Amino acid sequence: MEEEASVAANLLDLTLRPFELTDVDDFMVWATDDRVTRFCSWDTYTSIESAVKCITENILPHPWIRAICLKNRPVGSISVTPNKEDKFRGEIGYTLAADYWGRGIATAAVKMAVKIVFREWVWLERLEALVDVENWGSQRVLEKSGFEKEGVLRKFYLHKGKLKDMVMFSLLRS
Fold it and tell me: How would you classify the pairing of strands 89-96 and 148-159?
């Protein structure tokens, strides 16, 4: 019961906010952790310079990416990327520092992001998430956030040199 109260208190301090270049040290906590980057499309960062470049060139200009913060300190990231061909679709993705896994933080962040994006992007009808079949934690986050599992896409994604099966999840505005 005490642990549940602690989790609830942490979630009260949970916010999503735009990244700043000054977040680079916090970003490095999860971006240098192979456990976190195992399922990410990008490789583990090995230098502060490459992280600064990523924040400057990829994160800051991104149409919708936010730092997942506890007490305004970034512990992860969440993004929604519009589909280039079909404007009514977007893809959600997230990462969270390993020290915060299993506390409901990713689920709460996904729920918050969904509400914000559907409110801000009135044209968006469908959010999708592609998850590695081996990433059980992320699949559970999506299920708890209201996403529906649509099926497995076999040998769908070339990830770090290997063809991977991916699970498609979706959430509709309606």
Answer: unpaired
